[in-house]
Amino acid sequence: MRAYIFPGQGAQFVGMGKDLYENPLAKELFEKANEIIGFRISDIMFGGTDEELKQTNVTQPAIFLHSVILAKVLGDSFKPDMVAGHSLGEFSALVAANALSFEDGLRLVIARANAMQKACEAQPSTMAAILGLADEVVEQICSGIDAVVVPANYNCPGQLVISGSIEGIDLACAKLTEAGAKRALKLNVGGAFHSPLMEPAKIELQAAIENTAISAPVCPVYQNVDAKPYTDPAQIKENLIKQLTGAVRWTQTVEHMLADGATEFVEVGPGNVLQGLVKKVSREVQTSSATIA
Length: 293
Description:
Blueprint (H helix, E strand, L loop, with lengths): L1 E5 L17 H14 L3 H7 L2 H5 L1 H18 L8 E4 L3 H8 L5 H21 L2 E7 L3 H9 L5 E8 L2 E7 H13 L4 E4 L12 H12 L10 E2 L6 E2 L2 H11 L6 H10 L4 E4 L5 H9 L4 E4 L4
Parallel strand pairs: 1-2, 1-9, 2-7, 9-10
Antiparallel strand pairs: 3-5, 3-6, 4-5, 7-8
Helix pairs in contact: 1-4, 1-6, 4-5, 4-6, 5-6, 6-9, 7-8, 9-10
């Protein structure tokens, strides 16, 4: 069984998607996106600077566009048995699986990026990667800290990203290092994604999600909040709303996909970060990047 997986923020690079633009369908979709966004995001993707590409209102739609347009260009060879996306990638997965239209998916991603940006500006906050500790230890230490700090991204065994206030992250990093973490590395991010500090963004995005039509996908979508497969549009919506303040349970998602029969994981979009995370869960499973012939 083939699982298609879609990357999240951080996978971007200058030149992403440029090779796709030669394809007539891809060109049409990029131009449609430029129109919806109101600036030529394709120009920034293909030949902008790292700084331009790093802005949240550019990064999120850029990664979404690269992933979704690549999936669309694959045509009949794109036959997913199951899909999942990491954080932002969940929106790409839903469009690729025909649960969301291209236009609606892009509008939601823009709304999400803007809402997150506002929440970040309202309260300085950050994230940190914790390496070499069991998830339970990280969870326990975070829960004992008297400041906002929570497990946010369960990326793979031995790698958990925490999210919260500056004070909460600093306290947690000190305690986790003391508890034997190989590294507690603060990340260069704009805010505390997937934490309670994203509540204002969640409220803003909730209205947009509720007003968007979601259909039954062509295959199960394994969602971030609980790593389980969904096909019911109402449940998919509910989980999407919870996603901004909930943790990304990527380790558990890969485990569930493997348990449900996945034999091959194909990463659709920029980079190969997710393939590396999948290999940390199962060394035997086959991984690859989607490419156009």
